Amino acid sequence: MTDEPTGTTQDVATETPPAPATPDVEIASAETPEPTDKHARTEQRLRRERNAAREQLTALQAQLESLKSEKETRMAEETQAQLTELQTQLEAARTELRQERLKASLTGKVVDVDAALKLLGTEHLAEDGTPKVDAFLERYPFLAASPAAAPTAPGGGGGSQGTGGKKYTQADLDRMTPAEINANWDAIQKDLNS
Question: What are the pLDDT digits (tens) for 56-67?
Answer without folding.
Answer: 999 999 999 999
